[in-house]
Structures are given as C-alpha cells and as structure tokens.
Design a protein that fits this description.
Helix content: 25-40%
Pathway: Cofactor biosynthesis; (R)-pantothenate biosynthesis; (R)-pantothenate from (R)-pantoate and beta-alanine: step 1/1
Number of strands: 9
Shape: globular
CATH superfamily of the largest domain: HUPs
Distance between the termini: 46 Å
Main location: cytoplasm
EC number: 6.3.2.1
Strand content: 15-25%
Largest sheet: 6 strands, parallel
Number of helices: 10
CATH topology of the largest domain: Rossmann fold
Oligomer: single chain
InterPro entries: Cyt_trans-like (IPR004821), Pantoate_ligase (IPR003721), Pantoate_ligase_C (IPR042176), Rossmann-like_a/b/a_fold (IPR014729)
GO biological process, one term: pantothenate biosynthetic process
Length: 282
C-alpha cells in the first residue's frame, strides 16, 4: 500500500493509474476506521482496479462548539486496517497541506441542507462540499463511496457531483450495524456503558416507523410522533430531530409517497448519534 501525504504526489500517482487505463474507487473518510468504512472499502475493491482512501479530519465542517480537537484519531491503526482490506493508496494530508492559505473560494450548498443535521449545523455541508471538491480534483476517481448512515451527506454529494459535472459515479452503501442494531460510528466510543445500552433504541424506533408504514400509515406527523415516543420511552437522550422527507431532495411531506427518509438525531452526554431508514412507498 502506498502512503501519501502531499497533494502533488497524490495527483502524480492518480494520473499514472489513469494513463494505464485503471479505474479508481475513492473512499473519503475522517479516519478512525470501523466496519462501516471497511464496507465502503470492500465495495470499492469489488468494482475498481485501484482503491484510494483518504483520511482527513476537515476543520471546515466543524462548528465553533463542536468536537474537532476531540475527534478520535489513530493514523497507524487506520493504515493497518486499510492495508488489511486491500487499499492501494492511503492519502493522509495534514490541515496545512489541504488549506495552505485562507480560502479565496468556498463551495456553498444551497439545497438539501436546511433540514436534519444541516439545520443545527450551519456551514457544515459547505465544509463537506468544499473539501470533497478539492479531494475529487486531487484523486480524480471513477467512483466515490459513501455510507447511507449519513444519508443527508449522500444527498449533498449527489447534488455536488450533478451540479459541478464531476465525471464520478456516486455509490451509496447501506449502513453497517452492530449486532443490536446500533449504526457503526466513530463517535460511539463517547457513549457511557448505560448510554450504549440505550443507543439501539434509535434503530428500533425507525423499525417501528417502518412497520407502521407497511401497515398503511401514510401521515408523516403520526409516524414521526411514533418515533419520538419510542426514543423518549427507552433512552435518556435528548431528541435533536425525528423527521421525514422525500429523498434525496429532502423536501417536506405531509403524506408519505415515493422514496422517503425517516431520520433521527439524539444527543447523549458526550455524543450525538444519527440514524435513518430509506423507504420506497408505492
């Protein structure tokens, strides 16, 4: 596995692969790799000649009171996991490499960001879109792999690729879960033992909502109320949101129809967890 920290070296390596006619699958991450990331790597490995993975904790997508400094980091462990699962190129630039001077141009996301996590994290997805624009130009992949646990991010990336005409196929990979249903996340390490026992309630609440829809419930407000009630009954966490939108456009719905997302975010003492399910409703 090639380990690269400089943008110029990464561009040179990627250009060589493209000259050789090899397809490139790209997995952008903020590191502290877990089974969810491994699922992205495996999917990229199946579909491409070369798998490139980036680890970069992007300061632009953290707000002033968020956990940038505290975000878990373990580069040696990340390299080991990447190598074990067949990553060809491991790109880990530092902040000065990615942002050597104040930005004169920044991407501003206009759609799909005024709901869910975007509503309480203004500027977050501008930071995501800006760093991905840089990474897409550096790596020049054929396909880019993202997990559906952060389905709003997938929707934003879908718009970024479409609007800027990146010649990249977006591959959305289903959420990877613990045996008890909790979505894999780098932030799960912040949960106390008691909170860890309660956390699977997020997914159980979503499954209850899914069952209600399958039994004919089409009123969005009623489905959201069911989700909130379950989480409030089974956890001590504070509900940030429990909402339903069309997907991937993320437009409000009163009556459920077509492709929809049911999404939740819950704050525990030291961790904010998100989860969702996406349904196709006839």
């Amino acid at each position: 596995m090639m380990v690269i920290t400089k943008i110029k070296d990464m561009q040179t390596a990627m250009q060589q692969y493209r000259r050789e006619g090899k397809t490139i699958g790209f997995v952008p991450t903020m590191g502290y790799l877990h089974e969810g990331h491994v699922a992205l790597i495996k999917k990229a490995r199946e579909e491409n000649d070369i798998v490139a993975l980036s680890v970069f904790v992007n300061p632009l997508q953290f707000g002033p009171n968020e956990d940038f400094e505290r975000y878990p980091r373990d580069l040696e462990r990340d390299q080991r996991i990447a190598k074990e699962h067949g990553v060809d190129v491991f790109f880990s630039p530092d902040v000065k490499e990615m942002y050597p001077h104040p930005l004169s141009v920044q991407v501003v996301v206009k759609e799909r960001v005024d709901v869910l996590c975007g509503k309480s994290r203004p500027g977050h997805f501008d930071g995501v879109a800006t760093v991905l624009t840089k990474l897409f130009h550096i790596v020049m992949p054929d396909r880019a792999y993202f997990g559906l646990k952060d389905a709003q991010q997938v929707a934003v990336v879908d718009g970024l690729i479409r609007d800027f005409h990146f010649p990249i196929q977006l591959v959305a990979v289903p959420t990877v879960r613990e045996e008890d249903g909790l979505a894999k996340s780098s932030r799960n390490v912040y949960l106390s033992p008691e909170e860890r026992k309660e956390a699977p309630a997020l997914y159980k609440a979503l499954l209850q909502a899914k069952a209600a829809v399958e039994n004919g419930e089409r009123n969005a407000e009623a489905v959201c109320a069911l989700v909130k009630q379950y989480i409030q009954t089974h956890t001590h966490g504070e509900i940030d949101y429990a909402e339903i939108y069309s997907y991937p456009d993320l437009k409000p719905l009163e009556t459920l129809a077509g492709k929809v997302i049911i999404a939740v975010a819950v704050r525990f003492a030291n961790a904010r967890l998100i989860d969702n399910i996406i349904l196709d409703i006839a």
